[in-house]
């Protein structure tokens, strides 16, 4: 695991158009199986090698939500990260299968900055994000909407 070297940001520290690329994550069969055990989703294409090899994927593939979970975790390991806030939701698309030995990273940017109307002291940010494999292919993409603390005294 990578330890981020930059301090966590308040909402006020972000700028529209800021970008970041995360550290990498290597997908293993063991990690896919652990995710299956964690979630209880033992669909054969994720856990049964013979079944998966005979499927249209031709091999074991990770769960779609495995990819989203990894994308979110990679963002928290990035040099550009916010103080803990509240997730407001995701819009996420699954474009390509994630396979064993894929090396993934996340590219994200900052948009949609606005102060919260319902919670003084908080701001809203949208993070368009792409989960990218070692071939430069975007395997998943979408947006994460977050509510982030504002810098004390900045509002």
How many strand elements?
7
Helix content: 10-25%
CATH-level-2 architecture:
Roll
The largest pleated sheet is described as: 7 strands, antiparallel
Flag low-confidence runs. Answer: none
CATH superfamily: Hotdog Thioesterase
SS class: alpha+beta
Q: What is the CATH fold-level name?
A: Thiol Ester Dehydrase, Chain A
Number of domains: 1
**How confident is the prediction overall: mean pLDDT?**
95
Structural Rg = 17 Å
Order of helices and strands: EEHHHHEEEEE
Q: Kindly provide the name of the CATH class.
A: Alpha Beta
Shape: elongated
* Beta-strand percent range: 25-35%
What does this structure look like?
Strands 1, 2, 3, 4, 5, 6 and 7 form a seven-stranded antiparallel beta sheet that branches. The protein has a single domain, classed as Thiol Ester Dehydrase, Chain A, CATH 3.10.129. Helices cover about 20% and strands about 30% of the residues. The protein has four helices and seven strands; from the N terminus they run ββααααβββββ. It is α+β, with helices and mostly antiparallel strands. The N and C termini lie far apart (about 35 Å). About 25% of the residues are buried.
What are the defining features of this structure?
Bifunctional protein PaaZ, alpha+beta, elongated, 4 helices, Thiol Ester Dehydrase, Chain A, 155 residues, 7 strands
């Amino acid at each position: 695991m990578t330890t981020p070297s930059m301090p966590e940001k308040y909402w006020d520290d972000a700028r529209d158009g800021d970008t970041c690329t995360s550290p990498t994550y290597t997908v293993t069969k063991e990690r896919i199986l652990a995710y299956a055990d964690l979630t209880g989703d033992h669909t054969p294409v994720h856990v049964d090698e013979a079944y998966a090899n005979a499927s249209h994927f031709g091999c074991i593939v990770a769960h779609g939500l495995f990819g989203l979970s990894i994308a979110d975790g990679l963002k928290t390991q990035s040099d550009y990260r916010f103080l803990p806030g509240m997730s407001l939701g995701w819009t996420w698309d699954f474009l390509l299968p994630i396979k064993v030995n894929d090396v993934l990273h996340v590219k994200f940017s900052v948009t949609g900055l606005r102060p919260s109307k319902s919670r003084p002291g908080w701001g809203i940010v949208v993070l368009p994000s792409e989960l990218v494999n070692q071939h430069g292919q975007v395997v998943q993409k979408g947006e994460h909407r977050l509510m982030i603390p504002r810098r004390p005294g900045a509002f």
